[in-house]
Write a structure and sequence with these properties.
The complex is a heterotrimer.
Chain A: E1 6-9, H1 12-28, H2 33-54, E2 57-65, E3 70-78, H3 86-90, H4 103-110, E4 113-118, E5 124-131
Antiparallel strand pairs in A: 1-2, 2-3, 3-5, 4-5
Helix pairs in contact in A: 1-2, 2-4
Chain B: E1 6-9, E2 12-16, H1 23-40, E3 44-48, H2 57-72, E4 76-80, H3 84-93, E5 101-103, H4 106-116
Parallel strand pairs in B: 2-3, 3-4, 4-5
Antiparallel strand pairs in B: 1-2
Chain C: H1 3-18, H2 20-31, H3 35-50, H4 57-72, H5 77-98, H6 101-143, E1 148-151, E2 154-160, H7 165-182, E3 186-193, H8 199-215, E4 218-222, H9 226-234, E5 243-245, H10 248-258, E6 261-263, E7 269-271
Helix pairs in contact in C: 1-6, 2-3, 2-5, 3-4, 4-6, 5-6, 7-8
The chains are: A alpha+beta, B alpha/beta, C alpha/beta.
The complex binds adenosine-5'-diphosphate and magnesium ion.
Organism (chain C): Nonomuraea harbinensis
InterPro entries (chain C): Bact_StressResp_Reg, RsbRD_N_dom, STAS_dom
Pfam families (chain C): RsbRD_N, STAS
């Protein structure tokens, strides 16, 4: 299962497990119900991308604290094909598969910080942070 | 894969989603439901998502697909019980489920289906 | 650390041990804090000093707690800082009485240490106070945004004053929750009392209407002023098929009609079920 907040993403069941773990940690970080829901939804999208577009990978889930507020940081990484045109991939509706193309753009709107690093053949890393309001 | 039970109430099918659905179960539910609509000749489908804590683009698309599929099979669909946090998140994600009829709760959803068929189920 | 410094430092540690009662009493007077409260800090400091290469984590933890406690009790930042710096003066008096060169040199080292801890205390005090202010602002926000039930199945939010993005979000979340709690299928968002909106606020309003629809409820926006109408149009915000009414009364009449409630003769109201247009 989890190993220092690190979880594998290799199956549909793993995506569900990631959602549940992110929910638990979001509660621990003192997030409001709405913020919990947003970050869990973003996690679900990004975990599915790792599984579907990269054939698997992992995520690290951790609580962060900037002295004023607490939050959640999720780091997804995979060794899949990578993304050639990141700007294009972030556009709503853009997809190379059968999806709706809302995963990347949508999850960026649902979190406070969104950092995507990717290059063809070098896999993809996405680190997102969501702060608890107030 | 977990199966979501489909209940029959008169000529309405009721699906109450109580589990955290993985993608395979979502696809399974779509197929099961289409078969049941045809097999039972149901005129309406209520999807109760009161217990659902998140809807991402995959589950959102399932709701839209079920509604469109049922329309083709001559049945109306109502999605009931979406939580405020889920609704706000879905809008932010970029899904507004244009073609999907909604109601606040199961009772109102069933009543809405009755009205659609020109019957009054409240009396 | 050279040998001299080491000797000097050890002298201070000795003095902290032998004159502990005197120092504590004096510190307590200077800090205007009971001896008991300071004793724990004092012990933690001595333990940390005795430990070679201690990172002072324990004492920092205690100081953070002290700062938060003082914020809660409404102490000023200078009071809080004095509580720490008071120890310097108390120790200086003992050093002066000792008069030895080691003690004096050691005091310079000790003084720097306390300065660091004092600054740390002020910092945690500021952070804690900021948090209290943020919490209070949020509570105020909650209070100033009522969601009222206008009729069975109809709720309204009369918004007054400048809307910023945060406030709009809070109101809208409250509105959606009220729809669930009261089983209301209709909502009126009245912005008669709102002088202006920006893009973000207009977007929040729009998103709320869409979210309400997803939940099975319809919103009407009333009281859009000419300026706001102008803003919405010039910003190119798509209000699409959202129903808008001139006044709250118009909006209420409209929702009553929509929800199938018709006014009969006299005071009797008659509920008629309306078939929804497919
Ligand atoms: N982890 C990933 N590895 C490789 N490509 C990815 C990854 N995540 C996203 N992509 C690419 O970005 C596109 C957009 O992703 P997304 O917005 O989630 O839409 P969807 O998953 O529905 O296609 C995908 O179609 C895919 O081409
Ligand atoms: Mg995706």
């Amino acid at each position: 299962m989890t190993d220092g907040g690190r979880m594998p993403i290799a199956s549909n069941a793993d995506v569900v497990a990631v959602r549940q773990q992110v929910r638990a940690v979001a509660i621990e970080a003192g997030m409001s119900l709405i913020d919990q829901t947003k970050v869990v939804t973003a996690a679900s999208e990004l975990a599915r991308n790792v599984l579907v577009h990269a054939g698997g990978g992992r995520v690290t889930v951790e609580v962060v604290d900037d002295g004023r507020r607490r939050g959640l940081r999720l780091a997804f990484s995979d060794e899949g094909p990578g993304i050639a045109d990141v700007e294009q991939a972030l556009v709503d509706g853009y997809t190379t598969g059968p999806g709706l193309g809302l995963g990347l753009g949508g999850s960026r709107r649902l979190v406070d910080q969104f950092d995507l690093t990717s290059a063809p053949g070098e896999g993809t890393t996405i680190v997102v942070t969501k702060w608890a309001r107030g | 894969m977990e199966r979501v039970p489909i209940l029959k109430l008169g000529d309405i099918l009721i699906i109450s989603i109580q589990i955290d659905l993985d993608d395979q179960s979502v696809l399974g539910l779509q197929e099961d439901l289409a078969e049941r609509v045809v097999a039972t000749g149901a005129r309406g489908v209520v999807i109760d998502i009161t217990a659902v804590e998140i809807i991402d683009s995959f589950i959102g698309r399932m709701l839209a697909t079920i509604a469109a599929m049922c329309r083709l099979l001559d049945a109306d669909t109502v999605v009931v019980g979406m939580r405020p946090a889920v609704a706000i998140t879905l809008v932010e994600l970029g899904l507004s489920l244009g073609g999907v009829r909604t109601a606040l709760d199961l009772e109102k959803g069933v009543a809405a289906l009755g009205h659609l068929h020109g019957r009054d189920t409240t009396r | 650390m050279n040998v001299h410094a080491d000797v000097a430092r050890r002298r201070i540690e000795e003095l902290l041990g032998t004159s502990d009662e005197q120092i504590l009493r004096r510190w307590s007077a200077l800090a205007k804090a009971p001896v008991d409260e300071l004793k724990e800090l004092y012990q933690a400091l001595r333990t940390a000093l005795a430990e070679e290469g201690s990172d002072l984590a324990d004492i920092r933890g205690l100081l953070a707690e002290l700062s938060r406690d003082r914020v809660r009790r409404g102490h000023t930042p200078s009071d809080t800082a004095r509580a720490v710096f008071g120890l310097k003066e108390a120790v200086y008096e003992v050093v002066e009485a000792d008069g030895g060169p080691e003690a004096l040199r050691g005091f310079i080292w000790f003084s720097r240490l306390i300065d660091d801890l004092g600054l740390y205390t002020i910092e945690t005090y500021a952070t804690a106070r900021e948090k209290v202010i943020l919490d209070q602002a949020e509570q105020l926000l909650e209070l100033s945004t009522p969601v009222v039930k206008l009729w069975d199945g109809i709720v309204a939010v009369p918004l007054v004053g400048t809307l910023d993005s945060a406030r709009t979000q809070v109101v809208m979340e409250k509105l959606l929750q009220t729809l669930v709690d009261t089983g209301s299928e209709h909502a009126v968002i009245d912005i008669t009392g709102v002088p202006a909106v920006d893009t973000q606020v207009a977007q929040h309003l729009l998103k709320t209407v869409v979210a309400a629809r997803l939940m099975g409820a319809e919103c009407v926006i009333s009281g859009i002023s000419p300026q706001i109408a102008y803003t919405i149009v010039t910003l190119g915000i798509e209000f699409g098929d959202i129903v808008t009414k001139a006044t709250l009364a118009d909006a209420l009449a409209y929702t009553l009609r929509r929800s199938g409630i018709e006014f009969g003769e006299g005071r009797r109201t008659q509920i008629a079920i309306r078939a929804e247009d497919a």
